[in-house]
Design brief:
Chain A: It comes from Glycomyces artemisiae. The complex is a heterodimer of chains A (about 325) and B (about 280). With about 325 residues, chain A is mainly alpha-helical. Chain A has 14 helices and no strands. Chain A is flat, with a radius of gyration of 26 Å. By secondary structure, chain B is mainly alpha-helical. Chain B is about 80% helix and about 0% strand. The chains are: A mainly alpha (about 325), B mainly alpha (about 280).
């Protein structure tokens, strides 16, 4: 395919060899000019700072003072032996992976319900999508006030119903705060994801479903052996995307708890932000960011490999 | 397609379907509860909210909306958010489709390498580049300007854009472009007048996805805009959460106003939305 692309301009020009070569390089030079603006911005804004992060991660830079020393791998050693970091990692796993699994399950359920509708499906598709227009940040901001101990909606409802003991300091209690965060992140119908699943459900050939039914398959069996394998591609994409996004969960934590009480509800992204800017340990923060990068890269590669192998099987 | 086929079958409304509709409606209402709650409370005063948290507004008073603009930086933040969103979108459309076309048409090994370099960015979380970027922006005097936020967004969105456009351009026939070139059109003109219009489906999807995520972004403006700027809507709101502990009604009002543009965008481009959301994902 690529070889074909390369040969084509040469073939068009025909003629003598030098002319052909000149035409070929000119074509590539012009195409490079087309790529240049995006490439320059991308290299300056993504690649260069990422590489610089690796360098900074080997220093004790505070983020302000121009002078700093190289400390080797000391930052990495400190991070990997720090309880605070492992707590943040654990929270990230609970919130990121947990929400990826739960939201995908909710979205799939909603898509299956939508697929059952033969009337007004368009209308219901629209209203199911609507909540997805509210960003995680805005939702978290509203929740912060709804969860207020004295005047919040949640505790008010509980007290009105007579469950005075159930009214809690939702965001200030070490034991439950991460669970509350998970609940708020998963309090969605997974709008985008649900619609992607619906599109995939509708492309499942009805003949296959009918054939399975004639062969005596139960509803559960049809789903397990016909529908589910056909969804594997969409599940791969959605789970991978959500897990990658999950590693960098930040907005909800920043708004609702700011990592508190203490460091209890910190996530990796919040930890890096706090250490790098709040505690003036830019070198240390950079090292944590590199650890995050390695984890994200590993997740992407592994998730893709695992799910693709399953897809082929199906 | 399958939808119209099903409709032709002219089935009656079954009890099962009614149950499904009821379940979906309840789910949507439940999930929308926080937003509905904030909307109702944006019409109430602080005293009313704290006295009876579950009470309903007594009238349709827009006093909170007026006060939000008079007593806080919200108006300026709204303009900032608009400048960042529109500015980033325009620049993205100016450079990304062109680059994707160049990558697909340059041919040979360089095509593959440049593509992979861009795609690698999908695996680089913003946190990895954040600390060096802040110090560089400080050095060149761009820190806490909207320009810095736009530039950082551009780099972040380029990878996804290249992925989306390249996969689409693979299916665009070459013959039309070649005909235009034989007719003597320069490559730049060929691109903008022949190729770009053919990319419209992917452009509409890209613009909608990016518009939403730019409008809703919190982390990047939080890091790059300090208190010398009014910030974006989300940054302004988060500052208000810290400062206005006794003005809940303004926070609710601000939250509702932040959602309005997304809803308008959705209402106007509903068709593209739902198509756009699946364009990226079904293919992958």
């Amino acid at each position: 395919m690529t070889a074909q692309l390369a040969e084509r301009p040469a073939a068009v020009s025909g003629g003598r060899a030098p002319a052909r070569a000149r035409r070929f390089t000119r074509h590539r030079a012009v195409m490079l000019l087309f790529i240049a603006p995006a490439l320059i911005v991308y290299v300056l804004m993504v690649i260069a700072p990422s590489v610089q992060s690796i360098q900074l991660s080997l220093t004790n830079w505070d983020g302000i003072n121009p002078a700093y020393d190289y400390v080797g791998l000391a930052n990495y050693r400190d991070i990997l032996t720090s309880d605070r970091f492992w707590n943040a990692t654990r929270n990230t796993l609970i919130l990121g992976l947990g929400s990826a699994v739960i939201v995908n399950a909710i979205a799939l359920g909603v898509a299956l319900l939508l697929d059952k509708l033969h009337h007004a499906q368009g209308f219901f598709r629209t209203i199911v999508y609507l909540p997805a227009l509210v960003s995680g940040f805005i939702a978290a901001t509203i929740w912060k006030y709804m969860l207020n101990f004295n005047f919040g909606a949640v505790n008010t409802i509980l007290r009105d119903l007579g469950f005075d003991d159930a009214a809690m300091d939702w965001l200030g209690d070490n034991e439950i705060v991460v669970g509350v965060l998970l609940f708020i992140i998963c309090f969605t119908l997974g709008g985008n994801t649900a619609l992607i699943y619906l599109a995939n459900l509708q492309s499942v050939p009805q003949d296959l479903v009918e054939a399975a039914k004639i062969d005596g398959a139960s509803r559960g069996q049809v789903f397990r052996y016909v529908t589910w394998p056909m969804l594997a591609g969409a599940v791969t994409v959605n789970m991978t995307l959500m897990m990658i996004a999950g590693w960098t969960i930040f907005d909800q934590v920043m708004v609702l708890t700011a990592g508190g009480p203490g460091f209890v509800s910190e996530t990796m992204a919040f930890f890096i932000y706090k250490v790098g800017f709040g505690e003036y340990r830019a070198g240390y923060g950079s090292a944590a960011a590199i650890v995050l990068f390695i984890v994200v890269m590993a997740t992407t590669v592994l998730a893709n490999r695992y799910m693709r192998s399953r897809e082929v099987q199906a | 397609m399958s939808e119209s086929k099903r409709r032709k079958e002219k089935r009656r409304l079954t009890p099962g379907e009614v149950v499904v509709m009821a379940v979906l409606s309840v789910l949507v209402l439940a999930v929308s509860f926080p937003v509905l709650y904030a909307l109702l409370n944006s019409f109430r005063s602080y005293a009313e909210i704290t006295k009876d948290p579950m009470g309903l507004p007594t009238g349709l008073s827009f006093e909170n909306y007026a006060r939000l603009f008079q007593t806080t930086d919200y108006g300026e933040a709204l303009v900032n958010t608009l400048v960042i969103t529109v500015g980033t979108l325009v620049l993205l459309i100016a450079i990304v489709p062109m680059a994707a076309w160049g990558i697909e048409r340059i041919g040979g090994r360089s095509s593959r390498w440049i593509y992979l370099l861009f795609i690698a960015g999908l695996m680089i979380p913003f946190q990895v580049r954040m600390i060096p970027l802040v110090s560089s922006m400080n050095q060149i005097g761009l820190y806490s300007t909207l320009t810095s936020v736009i530039l950082v967004h551009l780099g972040g969105a380029a990878s996804f854009g290249i992925l989306l456009y390249c996969s689409f351009i693979k299916g665009v026939p070459r013959e039309v472009e070649e005909a235009a070139e034989v007719d003597g059109a320069g490559r730049l003109r060929t691109f903008w007048s022949i190729v770009f219009p053919m990319l419209l489906p992917v452009t509409s999807a890209f613009v909608i996805i990016q518009a939403l995520s730019l409008w809703n972004d919190f982390f990047i403006p939080l890091v790059f805009l300090d208190s010398s700027s009014a910030g974006t809507i989300n940054v302004a709101l988060s500052r208000m959460v810290g400062l206005l502990t006794s003005q809940w009604e303004l926070i609710y009002t601000g939250a509702i106003l932040a959602i309005v543009p997304s809803v308008i965008l959705f209402a106007a481009f509903q068709r593209y939305f739902i198509k756009g959301m699946s364009i990226g994902a079904v293919k992958g």
